[in-house]
Amino acid sequence: MGCNLWFIHHNVIRGLKCRHRAGGLVSINHPFLYSVPTGTWLFDWEHQDSIEVWDGPWDPTDEQSLATWHSLLVEGKRFTGIGGNDAHKVPDVTALPTTVVLSKKLSEAAIIDGVRNHNVYIVRDTG
1, 64, 110, 115: which has the fewest Cβ within 10 Å? Predict the structure, then answer.
């Protein structure tokens, strides 16, 4: 069975494992933006490769993501911290922040490997 969207949305953990088997990278993006009212992530922290610690203009959900990432690192869990944003409407801005990836070449596979190997840093903007 392939890793189609229906499969991922109806059985998240199986979908994440499927992505890994296919060589994909799993990132938990803005984990606290749409969380339950208690502000907790709905799933475990065992099936992803990265966590988005900064999403768009800095706000309390970014603080929570950054603190969670730090706690996970202290526990010995190695996830790559990334930054990015969603631009769905005006005046949303793209590339605030941006994840810069060190890769061996300019290809999708090399960039994924760079993220997987924690060879990244986050900048506020590319200017």
Answer: 1
Q: Residue 118 — pLDDT band, cuts 50, 70, 90?
A: very high
Count of CB atoms within 10 A of residue 50's CB? 20
pLDDT tens digits, one per residue of 45-87: 777 889 999 988 888 889 989 998 999 899 998 889 999 887 7
pTM equals 0.78
Q: Which residue has the tokens 């339950």?
A: 36
Neighbours of 30 (CB within 10 A): 19
Q: Which residues contact 13 (CB under 8 A, 6 or more apart)?
A: 43, 44, 47
Cα–Cα distance between 31 and 67 in angstroms, integer?
Answer: 12
> Is the separation of the CB atoms in 3 and 18 below 8 Å?
yes
49 burial level (CB within 10 Å; 0-12, 13-18, 19+): buried
CA 111/CA 125 separation, integer angstroms: 19
